[in-house]
Structures are given as structure tokens and as C-alpha cells.
Model the fold of this input.
Amino acid sequence: QQSDVCDAHSSCAAVVKPHQDEKEGGAPVNPLDQDAVTKEIVDEACSAGSIATQEGLSNCHQLCGPRMCCFVQLGQTSNCVDTKGKECMTYQACSVLADIDEDVKTVSEGENGVGLDVDVEDV
Done:
């Protein structure tokens, strides 16, 4: 049962433990290759098909949470593109979460700032 859960998330190991320990007999991973692997994992986790499910959306949030500062409007103090530039590019697919949050805000505020009780999926 636990091994099934671990197997389902085995591709995330490249993100969690990006460099193989040389003491284990493995060659270290080239950081450029690691960025490509990470980007591929994030792209898949945050694809339209993946975030259409609750589990997929949760996985995307889990991978992207620490990097959401990359997608705060430029000029805001919480935007971290200047400090995490390359990392922000690797996690570009996470921007879909910022778009979802903006859609929810727009729908809930309505035209005149009056709240509408509409689920984004119903729009």
C-alpha cells in the first residue's frame, strides 16, 4: 500500500533529491539536465489535463507552492523574479495557478465589485 503511493510519486524524486550521491556509485547529475527534468515534471503536473482533476491540481500546487512568488504581478514587493530568475523559468508552467486564482477573483468580484456565487467551472 505504501509502496504504491511511493511508486506513484517516483518521478518527483528528481525534484526532491536532484543530485545522486557519488558515494552510492552514481555519477552526479548535471544541473542543466536537472533543470530540464524538473521543468518536464512541472509541465506535466500543471498541464491542462492534469489540473482538471482534484488530485492533479493538488500535485501542481504542491510542486509550485514555494515558487508562486515568481508569478506575482511585476512591481509588487512579493515578486521574486529578480532573485529566482532561472528557477522561475524552470517552473513557468506554475503560472497556470496564478491564472486560476485571478479567474476565481474576477468571477467572485463581478462587474461592479458585487459578489457572484459562481463556480469558475460553471462559467
